[in-house]
Design brief:
Two copies of one chain form a homodimer. Chain A is built from seven helices and nine strands. Chain A has helices at about 15-25, 55-65, 85-90, 105-110, 125-135, 140-155, 170-185; strands at about 5-10, 30-35, 35-40, 50-55, 70-75, 80-85, 95-100, 115-120, 165. In chain A, a hairpin with a 2-residue loop joins β5 and β6 (about 80-85). Chain A starts with 5 loop residues before the first strand and ends in a 20-residue tail after the last helix.
């Protein structure tokens, strides 16, 4: 079984990573979203391991102690976290996992999973980023200029990533990300099996 | 001016690299073929720097001494070679250069140009490779089995490349190579200019 790809998509706030990730999942059914763990109670219909991994507070704290989380936070009295152990299990089963994460969080993931594919989204321009943040209609002039300054600081962190994609339109960005994933799957380092000479190069696994 | 991509395509004999490279050049007008140097006389209509760089024997030998060739050979009294200096000039002008070269030759190029994109073509199966070599109708049983043994030895060298593409159909192989080139152009290492904050990320050069 060939190990799956860990695909990490990040970008400064306002670059539209949520929309881009949603379209990747819609267009590429072979890619699954990373599932978070939480201590909040499951709502009717929610399945453990699908919407969330549902943990008791005791178990969640044990996972923290065992460094099983890439990152975690407490929100309104409940814990939420990204469980590395579960991502590893799924990658080892051959699943491709998409992880949408903030700029700094992605670099922490990279330290633990350097073989992942780290994609940084840029807005087409600072002007357009400003328009997008303004468009939300929730910003005062002060908070807008603070958010823009933060975005500029975050964008510099993109230099630590593998690939940079300008999100001018969602379709363009997703098409470029598809090419990145195709190329990554063709890397020799992910295809040693093809050099084993069982004779059928196309169908080796 | 952004430096062009050096695209090196290779593969065991019989894997169809000539056909694949021809289609890349036909489909992607932005990519140009590497031009060889030769000491043979230009034929009517041939232009220096287009079909070949036409050199005197003296100049050719001087280029050999100055290590300007990635590789060279003497064929029927004329010298032919792949001039690294000319490839470098064109890459620096922003041109993307395609180099089709034998398996071992590509590894020599990789030592001198590690930033190139090294793509190894595989046949879909050894059985299909055998059919393709037989199909030429020029092989005795002995030469066929020798060629196949050579191909197996050459294929192992593919482990030193960056990407592996199975040439099951020319269209599939070329589509995969196009994705590789798109992804390579999106690498952060080739896009430092995008992080310079002149403000327009889409059109920085």
């Amino acid at each position: 079984m060939k190990r799956g790809l860990l695909i990490v998509v990040s970008g400064a706030s306002g670059t539209g990573k949520g929309t881009v990730c949603k379209k990747i999942l819609d267009d590429l059914p072979g890619i699954a979203y990373s599932v978070s763990a939480t201590t909040r109670a499951p709502r009717p219909g929610e399945i453990d391991g699908k919407e969330y991994y549902f943990l008791s507070r005791e178990d969640f704290k044990a996972w923290i102690a065992e460094e099983k989380f890439l990152e975690f936070a407490e929100v309104y009295g409940n814990f939420y976290g990204t469980p590395l152990n579960k991502i590893e299990e799924r990658l080892n089963r051959g699943e491709d996992i998409l992880l949408e994460i903030d700029v700094q969080g992605a670099l922490n993931v990279k330290k633990k999973c350097p073989e992942g594919v780290y994609i940084f989204l840029l807005p087409p321009s600072l002007e357009e980023l400003k328009r997008r943040i303004e468009g939300r209609g929730t910003e005062t002039p002060e908070s807008l200029s603070r958010r823009l300054a933060n975005a500029v600081a975050e964008i510099k962190i993109g230099l630590e990533y593998d690939y940079v994609v300008v999100n001018d339109t969602v379709d363009n960005a997703v098409a470029q990300i598809k090419s990145i994933l195709t190329a990554e799957r063709l890397k020799v380092a992910r295809n040693f099996d093809k050099f084993n000479f069982k004779g059928d190069f196309l169908n080796e696994t």
